[in-house]
């Protein structure tokens, strides 16, 4: 129903009846319509009818005013929703721009490093294939910031295509770690060939790298979980980064042996120690 049209028609009808009644009774306002004004002989029913009609018209007038106020309120709410929608669109645009800038900065950093190597070995010619490989490496490194790798996650031997066991399990693990809501979407993927006696690592890719960082920070909470106490979560590292990290782990073990009274940990690609 077109509410605006219906209210307009009602208003015009009200005005017609109002003007007819006021002119007939020779009064200026509906509030002046009383029994004494419209009394005609002993015909009380005419009096009752006129008074009821006046009451009906006043009620109709009040209804129209209330409806108009409601329409104004709805219009303000619509404008507010439109403003919020534009704000969200702007925020998404900024995030997208930030992601593109991050990729650009990573590529530029890698290209600068590559240029330094080329300059140092200026006698060697750089092939187009090697250049493409360097750029691809930079982009892949940026993409990995959106991923985490989960180990010791139970794997189904024959997964039902109608159910996404890994995705549901990953979400349950995130909830156990303290991630109540996942921003955006995420996908899951097993790494490596299927093995009957071993669970393959589970890669989880998020739409926002902030979610990956948050999960990595809260993954230590899983040690208290009865279901996922053996699950551990690490960043998605490249082969070179994994080699470097293994060296850091060996270094960490050695330092812990030498400093049993201190807290030893790996942070920002280095081993740190501090007093308990």
Residue share in helix: 55-70%
Series of secondary-structure elements, N-terminal to C-terminal: HHHHEHEEHEHEE
Largest sheet: 4 strands, antiparallel
Q: From the helix content, strand content and strand pairing, which structural class follows?
A: alpha+beta
Main-sheet strand order equals 2-3-1-4
* Poorly predicted regions: none
N- and C-termini, Cα separation: 72 Å
Shape summary: elongated
**Beta-strand content bin:** 5-15%
Number of continuous helical runs:
7
Number of strands: 6
The average pLDDT score comes to 77
Q: Radius of gyration from the CA trace?
A: 37 Å
Assembly type = single chain
Features:
four-stranded antiparallel beta sheet; elongated; 6 strands; 59% helix; 276 residues; single chain; alpha+beta
Q: What would your notes on this structure say?
A:
- The protein has 276 residues and is an alpha+beta fold.
- 59% of the residues lie in helices and 11% in strands.
- The chain has seven helices and six strands; from the N terminus they run ααααβαββαβαββ.
- The chain has helices spanning 3-25, 35-38, 44-120, 128-144, 165-177, 209-218, 239-258, and strands at 147-151, 186-190, 202-206, 232-235, 262-266, 271-275.
- Strands 2-3-1-4 form a four-stranded antiparallel β-sheet, covered by helices on one side. Strands 5-6 form a two-stranded antiparallel sheet.
- The longest helix has 77 residues, at 44-120.
- The chain is elongated.
- The mean pLDDT is 77.
């Amino acid at each position: 129903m077109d509410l605006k049209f219906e209210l307009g028609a009602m208003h015009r009808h009200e005005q017609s009846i109002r003007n007819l009644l006021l002119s007939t009774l020779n009064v200026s306002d509906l509030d002046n319509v009383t029994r004494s004004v419209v009394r005609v002989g002993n015909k009380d029913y005419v009096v009752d009818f006129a008074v009821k009609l006046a009451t009906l018209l006043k009620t109709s007038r009040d209804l129209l005013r209330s409806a108009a106020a409601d329409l104004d309120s709805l219009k303000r709410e619509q404008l507010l929703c439109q403003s919020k929608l534009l704000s969200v669109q702007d925020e998404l645009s900024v995030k997208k721009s930030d992601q593109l800038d991050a990729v650009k900065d990573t590529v530029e950093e890698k290209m600068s490093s590559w240029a330094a190597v080329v300059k140092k070995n200026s006698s060697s010619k750089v092939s187009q294939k090697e250049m493409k490989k360097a750029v691809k490496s930079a982009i892949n490194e940026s993409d990995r910031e959106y991923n985490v790798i989960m180990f010791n996650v139970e794997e189904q031997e024959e997964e039902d295509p109608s159910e996404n066991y890994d995705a549901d399990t990953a979400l349950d693990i995130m909830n156990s770690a303290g991630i109540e809501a996942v921003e955006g979407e995420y996908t899951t993927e097993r790494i490596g060939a299927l093995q009957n006696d071993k669970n393959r690592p589970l890669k989880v890719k998020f739409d926002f790298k902030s979610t990956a960082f948050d999960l990595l920070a809260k993954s230590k909470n899983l040690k208290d979980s009865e279901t996922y106490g053996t699950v551990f979560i690490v960043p998605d590292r490249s082969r070179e980064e994994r080699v470097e990290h293994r060296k850091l782990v060996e270094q960490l073990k050695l330092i812990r042996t030498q400093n049993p009274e201190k807290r030893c940990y790996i942070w920002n690609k280095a081993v740190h120690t501090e007093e308990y």
